[in-house]
């Protein structure tokens, strides 16, 4: 049994219809519940919930303070390579983009780590394109020990791997893996993934199962907002989260909600989800799961990130570069996407502290886990 089997039992159109037909009474019933069902969650995603946004936001903020206090975790993406063997319509790393490619050497990685450490970070997200031949297990074996010497908490966002491969990386210090399904609507998924192993919808869908069985501490989920109907994709993310929490309680979970950004080969501007709807989605996720971590990247503009801090967000990146080698040296290599909050980590930290929150630079100390 995997989530792929669970997914086979779900009907996209039926779930979508349930969202759009939800009434004010359904929303009020959801807001009156102490433990939300997935049907309650669908009502909170509905257009009918828009007029209840102040109540949703207030309750989301309260639940977040109860579970996480007034803290925001900081992390930084460390891009190791922009090589990719996939052709995806929305990503700057896509193999069809004829731009400069780069994979960091151990010496370059060492310089990146020193530059990031100087900024104060102790949690990093390692990011690559998906290229098994040149940026696969051999590469990860060689670079993880270098990076682990500098940081306590290592996260990865790379191509999906086998369960035993994840177990090997955990032994080298890997703590968390982010693996976004992009969209849970299979025909739409096929239309955006044109070449490469990422075309295998179910291999990707089963990845969180493999991660949990391999003993990974934290697993990140999400859909790329803008590929299909955001409300329905978000309901599928909620089903995925609920399935994992029930079957693999030993792992922690986080959810991200990236909105499409302009990049090489794709100049579409975000706009398929309004800012108000992003607030609705964050609030709904918090009401569904008080313990799930909600992460916000520098894809979003500074003014909006500032306002979302008290709502339900628990982790943020700051001072990000989406290009390999972007911290230690200036680089002309291709960026994965353009960012919209260009403030330094210290500037974002000052903003967070001004709102009465504490910045946490370290996610978790592994020795506490025994």
Describe this structure in words.
- The protein is of the alpha/beta class.
- It is 41% helix and 14% strand.
- The protein has helices at 3-8, 12-20, 24-31, 38-45, 53-68, 106-119, 137-148, 163-171, 186-192, 201-205, 207-213, 230-247, 275-288, 302-308, 345-354, and strands at 71-81, 87-88, 123-128, 153-157, 174-178, 193-195, 218-222, 252-256, 293-296, 315-317, 358-360.
- The strands form two sheets. It has an eight-stranded parallel barrel, surrounded by six helices. A two-stranded antiparallel sheet has the order 2-6.
- α3 packs across α4 (38-45), α4 packs antiparallel against α12 (230-247) and α5 packs across α13 (275-288).
- The longest helix has 18 residues, at 230-247.
- The radius of gyration is 20 Å and the shape is globular.
Taken as a percent bin, the fraction of beta residues is 5-15%
Average pLDDT taken over every residue: 92
Count, helices: 15
Structural class: alpha/beta
Overall form: globular
Low-confidence stretches: none
Report how far the terminal alpha carbons are from each other.
Answer: 29 Å
- Please give the number of β-strands: 11
Biggest β-sheet strands, sense, barrel:
8 strands, parallel, barrel
* Overall helicity: 40-55%
Which labels suit this protein?
alpha/beta; eight-stranded parallel barrel; two-stranded antiparallel sheet
């Amino acid at each position: 049994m995997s989530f792929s089997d669970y997914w086979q039992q779900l009907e996209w159109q039926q779930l979508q219809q349930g969202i759009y037909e939800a009434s004010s009474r359904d929303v009020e019933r959801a807001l009156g519940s102490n433990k939300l069902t997935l049907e309650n969650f669908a009502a909170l995603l509905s257009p009918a919930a828009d007029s209840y946004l102040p109540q949703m936001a207030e309750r989301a903020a309260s639940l977040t303070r109860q579970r996480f206090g007034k803290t925001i975790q900081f992390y930084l993406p460390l891009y190791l390579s922009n090589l990719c063997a996939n052709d995806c319509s929305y990503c700057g790393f896509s193999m069809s983009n004829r731009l400069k490619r780069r994979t960091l050497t151990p010496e370059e990685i060492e310089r990146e780590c020193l530059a990031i450490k100087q900024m104060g970070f102790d949690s990093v997200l390692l990011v690559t394109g998906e290229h098994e031949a040149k940026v696969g297990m051999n590469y990860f074996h060689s670079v993880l020990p270098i990076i682990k010497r500098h940081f306590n908490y290592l996260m990865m966002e790379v191509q999906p791997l086998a369960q035993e491969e994840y177990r090997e990386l955990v032994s080298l210090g890997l703590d968390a893996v982010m693996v976004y399904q992009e969209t849970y609507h299979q025909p739409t998924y096929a239309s955006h993934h044109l070449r490469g192993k990422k075309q295998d919808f179910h291999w990707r869908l089963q990845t969180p199962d493999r991660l949990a069985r391999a003993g990974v501490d934290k697993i990140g989920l999400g859909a790329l907002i803008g590929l299909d109907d955001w409300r329905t994709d978000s309901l599928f993310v909620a089903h995925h989260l609920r399935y994992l929490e029930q079957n693999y309680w030993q792992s922690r979970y986080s959810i991200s909600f990236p909105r499409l950004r302009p990049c090489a080969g794709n100049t579409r501007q975000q706009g398929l989800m309004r800012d108000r709807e992003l607030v609705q989605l964050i609030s709904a996720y918090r009401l569904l799961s008080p313990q799930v971590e909600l992460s916000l990247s520098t894809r979003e503009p500074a003014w909006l990130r500032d306002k979302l801090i008290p709502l339900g967000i628990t982790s943020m990146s700051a001072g990000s570069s989406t290009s390999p080698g972007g911290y230690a040296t200036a680089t002309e290599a291709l960026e994965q996407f353009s960012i919209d909050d260009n403030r330094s980590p210290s500037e974002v930290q000052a903003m967070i502290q001004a709102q009465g929150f504490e910045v946490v630079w370290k996610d978790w100390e592994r020795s506490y886990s025994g």
